[in-house]
């Protein structure tokens, strides 16, 4: 039987606020067994970019990343956010190591081809080195992955954190019995944006299509669910979308194929 691995992805709103981040790190530290944390930080990048006079543009939940924006996201995700999380986990006795995709060549990507939209320095994941991660995890190290990848030619690329979590979960599904938990500021995928308690308990691809057509599911939730279905299809045992203060996976929305 495979050993259990819990992968938690934490998004921008939780990461941005010291109190919610601190609570999340405490809850994450309490998860028994092997674990890995993926963080976003989109809101922090937008804020710091604005302070530097750089305007942020998002299309379909993805940041248009020009050369100046790439510098900002590399500093914010690979530096500020990642290192604060690593330090926070170390303070709780968790032996965390911060990684971008370039570190130990853990995630290679290719610059997204220009079609209708030129996303700039945004990477589409090509390969996750499961072996590197397995060797760290089985030594008791907890990888903390930033939403940055590299192209193998010396360039960093900005990559959506939900995608990093989904692709990492898929790559590790052969070695571990993986549970992937996307946590954010809501109780799960909601049927009514105004009603915090309208959590949809289980989502299938058919229900997803219906809810997108009805406009119930939109914005950043679309790539989150696409990544979730892709992970379940590829053998990830359980995918859950839930509240950041409920990462035990016992509530929220369960993703089924
Ligand atoms: N049906 C829905 N249920 C919950 N959230 C939804 C729904 N449709 C759209 N959203 C939006 O998706 C957002 C989450 O996506 P995103 O901002 O990419 O997440 P993260 O905070 O994890 O980076 C929520 O803040 C919410 O505004
Ligand atoms: C290409 C792309 O869009 N990258 C994202 C990476 C950060 C992210 O995904 O952060 P959240 O999880 O907080 O949304 C961005 O720059 O916003």
From TrEMBL:
InterPro entries: AceGlu_kinase-like_sf (IPR036393), AcgluKinase_fam (IPR004662), ArgB (IPR037528), Asp/Glu/Uridylate_kinase (IPR001048). It is an enzyme of class 2 (transferase). Substrate binds at residues 41-42, 63, 158. The record marks 9, 224 as: Transition state stabilizer. It catalyses: N-acetyl-L-glutamate + ATP = N-acetyl-L-glutamyl 5-phosphate + ADP. Its EC number is 2.7.2.8. This is Acetylglutamate kinase.
